[in-house]
Amino acid sequence: MRQSYWEIRALGVDLVAAANNTPEENRTLRERYDLPFSILSDIDAEVARAYHAFHENEPMGRNLALVSMFLISRAEDGGKVLWEYVGPSSRYRLAPSRILEELQRALGRTRLHVDVVVPSTWQLERTIAGFQDPPMGFYRTPQEVGERYVLTYRDYTRELAMQAHAEVHRLTEEGWRLAAVSPEYEGAVVIGQRYSFDRSVE
Amino acid sequence: MGRVAPYLSGPEEVPGRVPLLGEVAPAFQMPDEEGNNVSLRRLIRPRPLLLHFYRGDW
């Protein structure tokens, strides 16, 4: 879910998790897994019950939710369940690429774009040689461009560049189509390559 | 997230479960990591929401 977070955001959807933990336990989990989304505290899985997602007959008798997902429309669209997935046990999960496809379909979006910017070697060497201030950080920003949502990676350290490379690899593995590779400019200087991926739903 | 669970390729039904598809999502308030109460009403004001239940202990 952490991997898919920005793709889900790129669809114009917010993500929030819920688990039968105290807020403190959730804070620990969130820090341990470096989650970009919030985990709400569903004590005794009461909310999960309301969503018909309570794990009845859990082998250890614990109050656990079934691993499940609910896409809920905006308040002004009625706050309705547009799509739901409830696994047959609390261990089951849906593959990330599948989740994205289901969300796209439910939202009536036919195309999703993700851009990853991998910085150039020159940029890396310059950083490593210390001619440049430490990086501003690694960020992926969903930008809304009309109907189109674009994610961008920009980064300036070797470690972060490797993450960007890994991301290009992951997207390829998950069946995204590489639509274009183009130089990324900062002013007149090429600072990296922009990989534009997209995927469509029939 | 720490342990490996199988990925499903297709939908699997939970026997006897009544689907909520098309219904108004049940309202809730749950505390976040800082203990602040968060309501569904507030969450879905700006955008649609994907609500994801975890098993709890991960």
Describe the model.
The complex is a heterodimer of chains A (about 200) and B (about 60). A three-stranded antiparallel beta sheet of chain A has the order 6-12-11. Chain A starts with a helix and ends with a strand. Chain A is about 30% helix and about 30% strand. Chain A is built from six helices and twelve strands. By secondary structure, chain A is an alpha+beta fold. Chain A has two domains: about 5-105, Glutaredoxin, CATH 3.40.30; about 110-200, no CATH class. Chain A has helices spanning about 5-10, 25-30, 45-50, 95-105, 120-130, 160-175, and strands at about 15-20, 40, 70, 80-85, 95, 110-120, 140, 145, 150, 155, 175-185, 190-200. Chain A is globular. Chain B is mainly beta. Chain B has one helix at about 40-45; strands at about 5-10, 30, 35-40, 50-55. In chain B, strands 2-3 form a two-stranded antiparallel ribbon. In chain B, a hairpin with a 5-residue loop joins strand 2 and strand 3 (about 35-40). Chains A and B meet through strand 1, helix 2, strand 2, helix 3 and strand 3 of A and strand 1, helix 1 and strand 4 of B. Strand 3 (about 70) of chain A pairs antiparallel with strand 4 (about 50-55) of chain B.
Helices and strands in order, then pairings?
The complex is a heterodimer of chains A (202) and B (58).
Chain A: H1 5-10, E1 14-19, H2 23-32, E2 38-41, H3 46-50, E3 68-72, E4 81-86, E5 93-94, H4 96-107, E6 111-119, H5 121-128, E7 139-140, E8 143-145, E9 148-150, E10 153-154, H6 158-173, E11 177-186, E12 189-200
Parallel strand pairs in A: 1-2
Antiparallel strand pairs in A: 3-4, 6-12, 7-10, 8-9, 11-12
Chain B: E1 7-8, E2 29-31, E3 37-39, H1 40-43, E4 49-53
Antiparallel strand pairs in B: 2-3
